[in-house]
Amino acid sequence: MAEYHKRNRVLHCTDIVKTFSSGETEVKALQSVNLDVYQGELLMLVGPSGCGKTTFVSVITALLGFDSGRCIVLGYDLSTMSDQKKTAWRGREIGFVFQAFNLIPALSAAENTALPLTISGINKTTAISRAKEMLKAVGLESKKYVLPGNLSGGQQQRVAIARALVHRPKLVICDEPTSSLDHESGQMVMELLKKLTKEHGVTMIVVTHDNRIYRYADRIAHMEDGRIIKVEENR
Ligand SMILES: Nc1ncnc2c1ncn2[C@@H]1O[C@H](COP(=O)(O)OP(=O)(O)OP(=O)(O)O)[C@@H](O)[C@H]1O
Q: What pLDDT band is residue 4 in, cutting at 50, 70 and 90?
């Protein structure tokens, strides 16, 4: 039995449709997406290029609107929220990890990690102290004063993970977190994401093409042509 809590639904999407139009052309990026995601699980979203993965994670984090369907995320019905509420909600409840770590070169690991807190108005001393705790959780306590350029790719991604989690979001979206890493660093990053999911009760949705990391998923949602065609339990 998986360790996540099937009763606590973090995401509930039904019949999500999203069409992009430019001039005469229309692209049905999401045709009718249905998906439930539960608290504390690591769900991987996989599928061929262009099948709609980025569009879907943009919709569920309220970065992109949708045409029809229902999308409840962490108890919020996204179709009824104002843009201002969406921005505040996203900053508070969601963390993002990207393929390109997007660290600021002139800031130390601790300062980079602290950014979401300082941006939200928390004073610098408190922010740095919480950032250091988070760096400890990702195994980088000794690198807290080091600049990103002096860290390996795997270490930079661990700083990016610390930054994504420092404000204690309930949902973390990881977009190809291992694809710019070598095999060993990729496995370490996935071990870490899995551990943080279980220890902090956070829910992770990992978009990936990297089948070497599928074994870290609790479930794998397969997407094709704007639909989720299959969700597998990973035993
Ligand atoms: N802003 C946009 N305007 C027009 N079409 C778009 C836009 N964004 C995405 N699309 C189209 O929507 C479809 C789904 O794209 P999406 O980026 O969600 O796929 P993906 O599965 O994330 O692909 P990849 O794995 O290559 O990142 C594609 O046909 C894409 O060309």
A: low
Amino acid at 25: T
ipTM surpasses cut 0.90: yes
pLDDT class of 6 with cuts at 50, 70, 90: low
Q: Which of 18, 19, 27, 46 to mutate to test the pocket of ligand 1 (most atoms within 8 A of CB)?
A: 27
Fold of 5-233: Rossmann fold (3.40.50)
Measured by CA distance, the residue closest to atom 24 of ligand 1 is 49
Q: Please state the pTM of the whole predicted model.
A: 0.91
Burial of 204 (0-12, 13-18, 19+ CB in 10 A): buried
Identify the residue whose tokens are 């994401």: 193
Q: If you measure from the C-alpha of residue 107 to the centroid of ligand 1, how many angstroms do you get, rounded to a whole number?
A: 33
Instruction: Using the mean position of ligand 1's atoms as its centre, give its distance from the Cα of residue 92 in Å.
Output: 27
